[in-house]
Design brief:
Number of helices: 8
Strand content: 25-35%
Helix content: 25-40%
Shape: elongated
Largest sheet: 5 strands, antiparallel
Distance between the termini: 39 Å
Order of helices and strands: EEEEEHEEEEEEEHEHHHHHH
CATH architecture of the largest domain: Sandwich
CATH topology of the largest domain: Immunoglobulin-like
Radius of gyration: 23 Å
Number of domains: 2
Oligomer: single chain
Number of strands: 13
Structural class: alpha+beta
């Protein structure tokens, strides 16, 4: 791992401790997994982590006066929405050691794809004791990073709502997914859109944040259907078949290729395209399994 080189002293590793991030839910707290399944744009992430800072050890190592201003910041970044959010700022009190309970809340509309959480220890008001001490407010003297992949329809593309009956669409439908493959090199976020039918009672309950077996099954069905449509589009597109997996891809073809790699990590796109032509049921059955359509 690359470590940034800074022109000032930094504290020893033992002066700061950062516990694992916990994902809070109605079922209790659990360690933040590397993949959050069935996530969608309505999901609000509530996270917590313990952080402990030895002010005296930090200031002595950094050649700062003990009463220099210090703060713990948490930055959240999403690679699909390009959002960068200051999720928390906690100023350290003037005590030798302080234990922080860091709690953050992240709105689903701001997120998608890979969520990176970076915890920083920042000098907010430096009182340097020599030239090797941090001199400027905002100097980062310690950092640690963790990440998780938010899986689900909400991670992939913009989502909006519309009363289908008001615009002449089938009022009993739940959603409409559109994917423009005219230009496979276009940015995926501009080529795909999911529209939820706000006029349907089940969708309205989902939008209102209902948490029950019915809305959970609706989310699984939505995830399965949109994943299925994306896979079908990918297997019909030659530009997708010829690509390699690239986790940083943002083009339409690149995102679709990554989806194939996530659903079938051991199979080549050529093999999948062959199954799609000769044994499409094999594709469909695996998608039901991978999307956890039935609980």
């Amino acid at each position: 791992m690359r470590r940034p080189i800074v022109p000032f002293r930094t504290p020893p590793a033992e002066a700061i401790s950062h516990g694992e991030w916990l994902l809070k839910s109605i079922n209790g707290d659990a360690p933040l997994p590397k993949e959050v399944p069935h996530w969608d744009y309505q999901t609000v992430l509530e996270l917590a982590a313990p952080v402990s800072v030895d002010r005296r050890a930090v200031t002595e190592a950094c050649r700062l006066d003990f009463d220099s201003g210090l703060a713990v910041l948490v930055m959240a970044r999403s690679n699909h929405t390009n959002a960068e959010i200051m999720a928390a700022r906690l100023d350290l009190p003037m005590t030798d050691r302080f234990d922080l309970a860091v709690d953050i809340t992240l709105k689903g509309a701001d997120l998608g794809g890979r969520l990176t959480l970076e915890t920083l220890l920042v000098v907010t008001s430096p009182r340097p004791r020599d030239r090797l001490a941090p001199q400027h407010p905002g100097s980062i003297i310690w950092r640690t990073t963790t990440w998780t992949d938010l899986e689900g329809v909400g991670t992939q593309f913009p989502t909006d709502t519309l009363d289908f009956a008001a615009v002449g669409l089938d009022p009993e439908a739940g959603w409409q997914f559109k994917l423009d493959l005219t230009d496979p090199d276009s940015r995926f976020m501009s080529a795909a859109r999911l529209t939820l039918n706000s006029g349907h009672p089940a969708i309205q309950r989902l939008l209102n944040g209902a948490k029950d077996d019915g809305t959970e099954q609706l989310l699984r069905t939505l995830h399965w259907d949109v994943t299925r449509q994306m896979v079908q589009a990918a297997l019909r597109c030659e530009d997708v078949i010829g690509l390699d997996v690239d986790p940083e891809a943002t083009t339409t073809a690149g995102v679709l290729r990554n989806l194939l790699g996530r659903v079938w990590p051991l199979e080549s796109p050529t093999t999948l395209a062959g199954w799609h032509r000769t044994d499409p049921a094999r594709i469909e059955v695996h998608l039901q399994h991978q999307s956890r359509l039935l609980r």
